[in-house]
Amino acid sequence: MGKNYIFRHIQLSIGICLIMFSLTGCSMNKEAEKHMTRDHMILDKLENAENYYDMHPDFEKAFAFLRQKGLAELPADRYEIEGKKLFCMISKGPGRSREEAKLEAHRKYIDIQYVIAGADEMGWKPTSACARVDTPYNADKDIEFFKDEPDSWTEVPAGSFVIFFPQDAHAPMVSNEEIHKAVLKIAVK
To answer: 0.85 exceeded by the pTM?
Structure first.
């Protein structure tokens, strides 16, 4: 029972583990894919942002922008973080009614929508379940609108964010008060 026996035993054990992982589908990619197939939108507080870093390589940079001091004082505008790959749009304006809100979806970008002040009630429905196109997809603006009703409505209070992937149609800006928010756009690829 020499070193060669121990070395072969370790190699065999590692080989068995790798086979088990591949058969059961355990891998970092599978774990990330799990987040991509959901039956609800992602809603959380900014203090928990680290829990979502593994969902996209640029999420850490995106959340760092939201954590900067003085975010609430930034004027409404577009802010380049990494060019077209990662940018933020700050807006401040009146909310609208549920009836006025249309479901929208994007194909090239993921949205992280962070409410700075006010509350934003957001509608959600899987994009794949949207059947009634209102405005066809515009590749230049990366947006399409649907006439479908959301499956759910969720109030997003100040200090909270939602994440919308391309498979998440969403109807934001529903409120009877002013909403101040930051919308981060993160390129899918």
So the answer is: no
